[in-house]
Amino acid sequence: MRKHILYLLLGSNLGDRKKQMDEALDLIPEMIGEVTKRSSFYETEPWGFSSEEFFLNIAMQTLTSLSPEEVMRKIDEIEKRFGRERADSGYSSRTMDIDILFYDDLVLDQNILKIPHPMLKDRRFVLIPLNEIAHDLIHPVFLKTIGELLQECADTKEVRKLKE
Questions:
Q1: Which residues of the chain have pLDDT under 70?
Q2: Predicted TM-score (pTM) of this structure
Q3: pLDDT given at position 94
Q4: Which entry of 23, 43, 131, 142 is 20 to 30 Å from 11 by CA?
Q5: Which of 16, 26, 73, 94 is catalytic?
Q6: Catalytic-labelled residue, pool 84, 124, 136, 160
């Protein structure tokens, strides 16, 4: 069965963030595929809404035999285990958020699933951890590397690498 290269970003800013992230990191190999690279943990200022609680974020590369739609269903299952309820009204704090950043070099634009993630080029909290593990990865729409997108990113929100 063919393996696809999948990049994910995990985030949490409610509850015991580190414990929840560690639990999600254990679930991803079981439910989605083998984790082949992962970034450091980053503490990041909320983007798109106000909250005193900073996020804990990590980017990862995974090998999966699942389709993008199957990956999305598994992500929904994992998020629900942490009590996540998706709201249609903008951004908010959450116990667990998992975004598909890339799936091979697929470009997909459906109502519920857009790959590559349409906002990643505007978000340092995505680009910085992704740059750590995939500096030379070329965005299939913008035809620039992650490193180049990070250099061009105008976002000024705080992103700091945690010591592990």
A1: 48-51, 84-93, 164
A2: 0.93
A3: 74
A4: 142
A5: 94
A6: 84
Catalytic pick among 99, 105, 122, 123: 99
**Active-site pick, 2, 26, 86, 97:** 97
To the query of whether residue 123 is one of the catalytic residues in this protein, the response is: no
Per-residue pLDDT tens digits for 51-66: 678 889 999 999 999 9
Instruction: For residues 17 and 96, give the distance between their C-alpha atoms in angstroms, rounded to a whole number.
Output: 8
**Burial track 45-76 (b if 16+ CB lie within 10 A, e otherwise):** bbbeeeeeebbbbbbbbbebebebeebbebbe
Cis amide linkage into residue 116, ω under 30° from 0: yes
Q: What is the pLDDT of residue 104?
A: 97
We report the CATH number of the domain holding residue 54 as 3.30.70.560
Has 160 been annotated as catalytic?
no
State the total domains in the chain.
1
